[in-house]
Q: What sequence folds into this?
């Protein structure tokens, strides 16, 4: 699955560790400092050109706002405006974020959350 390859890419680049502070599809109560990656649907595939356009949301949570923002910026730098690369068996033509890393508030435990929304153009 592409979402798993995205998580592995974060891990390979020193952003975190899958299952330790990087989570796929759910946001656990602990640890305080973590990254959650969610599939958010995407856009209609192009069957003629065999291209798909999946989208993903990253939620970076931390007890310190500056650290949450810094981690979000690291993720942004890894994927934004990147062309022609592979994530596992998936060939990525292009990836970009829909907006700057965005503060979405604090959770019920007072931890800061920053959201990023990734758009990918990939081979079908």
A:
């Amino acid at each position: 699955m592409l979402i798993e390859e995205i998580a592995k890419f974060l891990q390979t680049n020193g952003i975190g560790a899958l299952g330790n502070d990087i989570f796929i599809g759910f946001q656990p109560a602990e640890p305080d400092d973590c990254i959650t990656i969610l599939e958010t649907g995407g856009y209609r595939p192009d069957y003629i050109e065999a291209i798909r356009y999946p989208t993903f949301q990253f939620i970076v949570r931390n007890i310190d706002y500056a650290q949450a923002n810094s981690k979000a910026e690291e993720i942004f730098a890894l994927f934004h405006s990147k062309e022609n690369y592979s994530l596992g068996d998936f060939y990525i033509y292009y990836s970009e974020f829909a907006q700057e890393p965005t503060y979405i508030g604090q959770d019920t435990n007072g931890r800061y959350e920053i959201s990023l929304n990734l758009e990918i153009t990939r081979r079908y």
